[in-house]
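Researcher: Hi, I'm a grad student and pretty new to this. My advisor asked me to get structures for two proteins we've been looking at. I'm not sure of the right format, so I'll just paste the first sequence and hope you can take it from there.
Model: That works fine. Here's the first sequence with its structure tokens right after it:
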Amino acid sequence: MTTPTTRKIIAVLIALMFFVSGCDPTGRGSRGVDEVSGRITVSGAWALYPMMIKWGEEFQKTHPEVQFDISAGGAGKGMADALAGAVDIGMVSRNIYPEEIEKGAFWVAVTKDAVFLTVNEQNPFWEELHQKGVSPQTLEGIFITGEVTTWGQVIGRPEITDSIHVFTRSDACGAAETWAQFLDHRQEDLLGIGVFGDPGVIDAVIKDPLAIGFNNLNYAYAIDTGQPMPGARIPPLDINRNGVADPQEIMDNKDQAISAIALGYYPSPPARDLHLVTQGAPTGLARAFITWVLTNGQQFVGEWGYIPLSEERLNEELSKLE
């Protein structure tokens, strides 16, 4: 089995290959340079965007002649841009579909996170939400069938008639697709007011005490504090439907959330792998960077609030690049 040291050596050897040959990092011919250089364009999933920014910054420390152009916009944009050749790498935070594989999508998993239910910290029924959790059946009634429309229905108190203000994503994205898959549906089946991007959803939630939405890990929780985003809370999911939020279902901070994902207490979906996608197998600079992400770049994953893939899984992903 390949060890972490061996994987790091692989990344260094690929970088040295460009250093010695002076080849075009885009794979289109000689540039007459003596180091890894060029521009990498990346677009796609909001879920992976913070991690990609960090990876780009760290890669540039050892490869200062490489420039990055990184933008978010949803997993759908990342896949479309990658398949169209509009960017070198797409960020995709959902499963890769067969029709995308047929069009030439090549992908590697690079880390893992999850989608979380979010509500306003001033939600008047927070104590009961926190004690009981919210079952998948109730969530289906909120986001899919529209049969659950009041907070009284959520907490089992029919005398309460305060309306639930539901927010979803307006952009084609991995978070919405993953959330819908958790409820055995697709993104287009989700109900609610459509808001663009992860930042848009969390902003809508923290402005409305009766709001409910869903967000990726690093938008549900603040990167710097590990606490829910200011103005938001994360209700437990009552996965076993026993009407009580069990200790392993409570995720009041990011450490609890990450532990629940890593140990398998939090289901998949809404936990999921995050991928980098290219049109066909990557070459040149894109291949060197993706190899670095799967080797040296992994040291930043936990620090940045994501869930590392297993050693075995990383080796599987690296083997795709051979």
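Researcher: Oh nice, that was easy. Here's the second one.
Model: And its structure:
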Amino acid sequence: MGKRFDVAIIGAGITGLATAWHLERLGVKKIALLDPLTIGANETLACPGLFFGGSLDNFTRSSHRHGKEIAAALWRFADESFDLLLSFAEKTGVPHLVYNRLRLISETDELNEARQAVSQLSACGFTPQLSLAIPHPHLSSMGVQRDGGRGGWLAPDKLLATLRRSIAAPTIRHEVSSLRLKRSGIALQLGDENHEIHAEIVVLACHGGISKLLPVFREVLVPVASQWLKLSVTGDFPATMAELDVGVGSVFSATHGNRWGGVLPRALLAGGGNYLRPLAGIGQLTSCWQENIAVHLEHWIAEQFAFKPEQLVRELGGVGVDIRPWDELPVIGPMFAEGRILVASGYMGQGLTLGFNGGRCLAQLIAWGEAHSLPRILWPERLRSS
């Protein structure tokens, strides 16, 4: 008989650690945190550190597919998630920057979509702004959609280290090879060894590894390769950045969220460009560095803000795997037909933003049986017939 816990959390990224952190503050103490060696790599450490409200693509992406009410609920959840993570960073001293969340518009179809998005957002009680016809001889933008001061950056390694120091739960460094439901709880097989631990409730926060443990999700949670790079800036930032109000701490996106970036002191982050990957990176279980994407992003940043090419010096970069549900909504909540298993994944490019709040909601569901701020549409039950 293995050790017994009230809750076993598989995954030690932002969601797993946040779930443990919130559970302990809600009085649940007998927790095991499993940090797998191969299941679902820690994507939090591989991310560039950007967090932001709203969504990566515009409001209309969700409203067209799911209706305005669901789109607004998801937008509010993301805004709340941004505020919660920012509050935690401020209170614990995690290095961070905050400024604007911007959408840079350079195509007519994007401009038309932005007009519709701003109208719908305003009708739902949000306060976006759309600025048009920005005059500059070297600026490609036709306009900018401002979604408020919910753009920011924080240090992912410092965030995880701070959470770890604040958690009393032991860390078990084993891969979980299988789950077995029993009347008395759930047995977790650890690796290839004849060793188990037992828990009343299991939280799957291992993202890419969820489908391995729950095969029902194999066709639902789709892996997508991703890539980003950091560019140091020599000389002065161009005047175009001030004209666009792209200050230090800003998060910006363009081409329907297919390209994105952020501003650090004396540096910029840039990511996306998946349309240059085979099948846009969809279905790739691992990500690899593509030099053509890096060059493409460098050129985009230079053209977007009127940098001279010699001003941008590549400093570092990273690759990762995002998880996108087939219906483009995050999956957070208890499994259908088995409430003792809870899952969180499919953050649609907003893992750092949504993970902390996702962990809080899972902790509330476990401790209280409800999480009022979690939209019910995000529960896995919607995938029952998929």
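Researcher: Is there anything I should tell my advisor about the second?
Model: You could mention this: The two ends are 37 Å apart (CA to CA).
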